[in-house]
Amino acid sequence: MNNTSNPFSSFDAQSKDTKFKTNLNEPIDFNTIENEVNVDDNIFPTDVFPTIFKDLIFDLKKSLNFPTDYTGTAILTAIAATIGTTAKVKVKGSWYEYASLYSVIVGNAGANKTHPVNQMFNILRDIDKLAINKYANDYSEYEEYLNLDKKTKLLTPKINKPILIKSILTNFTPEILYQRLNDNQRGCTVLSDELTTFLEGMNNYSKGDQTSVYLSMWSHQPTSIDRVGNPIPLFIKNPFLNIIGSLQPRMLKQSFPIHKMNNGFLQRFLFAFPSDTNKEPINDNEVNSELLNNYNSFISNYIKEHPVNTNFETGVIDSKIYYWSNEAKEYFYNWQKQNCDLVNNNQNSVKAEIITKFDNHFVRLALILQVMENYNTYEISLKAVKSASELCNYFMNNAFKILAIIQDQKTYIDALPLNKKTLYNELPITFTTETAISIGAKCNVLERTVKDFIKDVLLFSKLKHGNYKKIIKN
Question: What is the CATH number of the domain that holds 49?
Answer without folding.
Answer: 3.40.50
